[in-house]
Design a protein that fits this description.
The complex is a heterodimer of chains A (111) and B (113). Chain A is mostly beta strands and 111 residues long. Helix content of chain A is 0%, strand content 57%. Chain A starts with a strand and ends with a strand. Classes of the chains: A mainly beta (111), B mainly beta (113). Chains A and B meet through strand 4, strand 5, strand 9 and strand 10 of A and strand 5 and strand 10 of B.
Chain lengths: 111, 113
């Protein structure tokens, strides 16, 4: 079983603050790295899929970067809003067709 | 375009019974993934299927669990002779291909009495 680690485990920020979290994954046999947003009582919602080293993706105030050589991805949220409160999951996919999810970073944005 | 549909939303079984969980992928999606979330834990990969084929089942327990995705109809996750430890939320996701984002269903909450 491979380890996908996310940090921090939880985060409280004030509305308007920018924040970022980390996903660490094995650097060998890399295929893709996914980011999902999971609100309570809903199902995970896809944010990004990244496949190339150095990839940067952006969706509104949320962006992500990928470093496959050292095995990490950062997710950034600019100007956090209360509706950004959710758990943010990353998932590592290897060349062996498996998917490994981290346990998530729980973000609470305080109005 | 309907999203990924899972049913039932909640399923209660007694120990030793069989549980059948259904997943209808989004239209146009031929890749289906099943995940399990045990209480207080994250999502764990179980199995990855394409129409009529199991691509990877390395995350699925070797005994009592099976999955299929027939040419017609939904994908089925089947758990035979359920035990208390099978109580969990089971999520299904689908995508058009492996490099695409996965779209998740709302999950089936399985409770074993």
């Amino acid at each position: 079983i491979l380890n996908v680690e996310q940090s921090p485990q939880s985060l409280h920020v004030q509305e308007g603050d920018s924040t970022n979290f980390t996903c660490s994954f094995p650097s060998s046999n890399f295929y893709a790295l996914h980011w999902y947003r999971w609100e309570t009582a809903k199902s995970p919602e896809a944010l990004f899929v990244m496949t190339l080293n150095g990839d940067e993706k952006k969706k509104g105030r949320i962006s992500a970067t990928l470093n496959t050589k050292e095995g990490y991805s950062y997710l950034y949220i600019k100007g956090s809003q209360p509706e950004d409160s959710a758990t943010y999951l990353c998932a590592f996919s290897n060349t062996g067709n498996q998917f490994y999810f981290g346990t998530g970073t729980s973000l609470t944005v305080i109005p | 375009n309907a999203g990924v549909m899972q049913n039932p939303r909640h399923l209660v079984r007694r120990r030793g019974q069989e549980a059948r969980l259904r997943c209808s992928p989004m239209k146009g999606h031929s890749h289906v993934y099943w995940y399990r979330q045990l209480p207080e834990e994250g999502l764990k990969f179980m199995v990855y299927l394409q129409k009529e084929n199991i691509i990877d089942e390395s995350g699925m327990p070797k005994e009592r669990f099976s999955a299929e995705f027939p040419k017609e109809g939904p994908s089925i996750l089947r758990i035979q002779q359920v035990v208390r430890g099978d109580s969990a939320a089971y999520f299904c996701a689908s995508s058009p291909g492996r490099q695409w984002p996965q779209h998740f269903g709302d999950g089936t909450r399985l409770s074993i009495l």
